[in-house]
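Hello, quick one for you while I still have it in my head. A protein chain has come my way and I'm curious about its shape. I'm sending you its amino acid sequence along with the backbone structure tokens. I'd be grateful if you could look everything over and explain what you see. Here's the protein in full, and shout if anything looks odd to you:
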Amino acid sequence: MANIDVRLLRYFIAVAETGHMTRAAERLGIGQPPLSQQIRVLETQLGVTLFERLPRGMALTDAGQAFLADAYEVVRKLDQAVDDVRRVAAGVKGRLSVGFTSSAALHPFVPTVIRAFRADAPSVSLMLDEASTSELLDSLRDGQLDVAFIRQPQGDTGQITFVPVLEEPMVLAAPSAHPLALTGRAGKAVVPMTAIAAEKLILYRRRTGQGLYDAIIAACHGAGFSPNIEQEAPRLLTTLSLVAAGLGVSVVPASLMRMQVEGIVYRPLAPPPRAPLYCAYREGVLAGPTARLLDHVHVAARSVAPE
């Protein structure tokens, strides 16, 4: 069976279903003599007679009847395999592993893209993972992840393509009773960067969020001071918890203002540090579900208003 051309199986099925060589040839779009020849080739390869030749048609022998069920199954499985591989190539079947940093996941852009992709390709098995930027990039290189949303490229980026998606301002997060939080109406009063020079600063740990950390430090130096770093928290939400507890202030992406943490007031900064967002994937790996997700990334990026 392994050496039998699948076309012979299709020819056999057509003759079996029509019970007539000429009608089967018309269905297949080939001549009757070549079809008769191919049926004889199949019988020779199998070493059995599949059809009884009648004056007005073709009738399956017992061997042909037994072979028909298997022929159907082989053709069905082959057609299914062809359909599956085409669907994987089109990005609507298969699996996709997507990683993100905690700060990236908190921006509405990321869940918007994931929702759009899920609606577009519901048959794709989608795996999501949260980790630090360095861990995500390592997983991309190792093939454990297909796509990652990060804040800033870092380390050896030679094997990875980075697509800039958006850039958002960063804001001050202060305890609600803090003097910087009590000036003006909530979210309206602009705080100059120099105003936080003497404040105890709580930052997202650099090892976990190098992009945000470096952007904040650079903004402080640009404003003419070195920050007074009180603590470095392992996670961004932990940073907000420490601020709410009154242990200091922090600088976070503006998208975190959607996190209504009790005891925290957000204030715009001037000039604001900028927090970019990138979509990363391995170089040369842009096909199937990965390519389809990137299509949604590009569509969503075009719809993002300048922030």
